[in-house]
Design a protein that fits this description.
The chain is mainly α. It has a domain of 83 residues. It contains five helices and no strands. α1 crosses α5 and α3 runs antiparallel to α4.
């Protein structure tokens, strides 16, 4: 299913992502891999298909949760759950404290989005 967001919805999506990143204490630069570094990683360092969702250290695991929360709705449910399971295992391995990805827990989506919007000052 393809959905088309209006410009205002895209702006809110971007602001929501920024609020999540800020609250979680992340930055987009924190978990950037160069082309060569990514190419040199073994297949086992990735949680997603086609070498996506690198999770070879704690900062990439945290970044993976943020990306899955933001963009996971675009993935098939079984792929999303497989990535989530892998990230949860890596979080345990690297001692990353995280509640997981709210996109994988549909009952918490509305509550979580409202909470992030509140802390970003976007909710009226």
């Amino acid at each position: 299913m393809i959905s088309v967001n209006t410009e205002s919805e895209n702006r809110i999506d971007e602001q929501l992502v920024q609020a999540i990143v800020t609250y979680e204490g992340l930055s987009f630069e924190e978990a950037v891999l160069s082309y060569q570094a990514r190419k040199n990683l073994p297949e086992s360092a990735f949680c997603g298909p086609d070498r996506t969702y690198p999770a070879e250290d704690a900062k990439h695991v945290r970044n993976g949760f943020a990306r899955l929360s933001t963009f996971g709705h675009r993935l098939a449910e079984n792929v999303r759950k497989r990535i989530h399971s892998c990230l949860m295992a890596r979080a345990k391995k690297f001692d990353v404290e995280h509640g997981g990805c709210w996109i994988c827990k549909p009952s918490q989506v509305k509550e979580t989005v409202e909470w992030y919007l509140n802390i970003a000052g976007l909710k009226e």
